[in-house]
Amino acid sequence: MRKKIIAGNWKMNKTIEEAVELAAAIKRDLADCKAVDVVLCPPFTAIKSVSDVVSETLINVGAQNMSSEEEGAYTGEISHNMLKELFVRYVILGHSERREYYKENDYWINRKVLKALEKKLRPILCVGEKLEQREAGETEKVVEVQIREGLKGVPAEAYADVVIAYEPVWAIGTGKTATAEQAQEVHAFIRGLVREMVGDQAAQTVRIQYGGSMKPGNAPELLAQPDIDGGLIGGAALEASSFVGIVKAAL
Ligand code: PGA
């Protein structure tokens, strides 16, 4: 049985003070949550403070990006060491906003995934098609390239530490959610692809989250699908009550 994982992607929201308040409110309900992996991904500037709030709880902290390099002259970048020092366990990589606005491509995303795994950070690799690609019937083709390229060189045994987030770009922040059937179809496709790439054991253990306007109201149906192992939550992660509601739907 795969353990469900619900991660809050706070994006470029929350000052330190606001982040501490949100983390403290989430902690009141989820400090001892064993049945679901809960991950909070604040902006870099608030990671230390959020880590302090959730230390000695079962809540994990994640980052929203990471450099593929070790250290040195990479202005504006943050390394794995800097994250691990703040007790970060997960890192979101290849989010569609980074692909779209900052032109991150599969090559660099793959380097980050490999670096994260090498350094014992768990990557949350985001994939997903744009609206015009879905309408052109290209969803599987687009997702296949992102998965094959993004996970190139990842050995089968590392898939237990890999999380894939399927986030149809047209559903992110738009209030439009993929139906449970649409999401399940792509999730099953991704799992099949992993099976083809590295075998059944890895396909059975890798966790695949859905992301894109997930809310307490639609979470139960999405999370009931056999290949949906959790959620990557944007907007609804900025309010303790809605984030906690989604985690409860995963129990
Ligand atoms: P959303 O964002 O829940 O606001 O649609 C999800 C994401 O971008 O990870």
Question: What descriptive keywords fit this protein?
Answer:
251 residues; alpha/beta; 8-stranded parallel barrel; 16% strand; globular; binds 2-phosphoglycolic acid
Would you mind describing this structure in some detail?
The protein is α/β, with parallel strands linked by helices and 251 residues long. It has one domain: TIM Barrel. Helix content is 43%, strand content 16%. The chain is built from eleven helices and eight strands. It has an eight-stranded parallel β-barrel with strand order 1-2-3-4-5-6-7-8, surrounded by five helices. Helix 1 (16-30) links the parallel strand 1 and strand 2. Helix 1 (16-30) runs parallel beside helix 2, helix 5 (106-118) crosses helix 7 and helix 7 crosses helix 8 (180-198). The longest helix has 19 residues, at 180-198. Bound molecules: 2-phosphoglycolic acid.
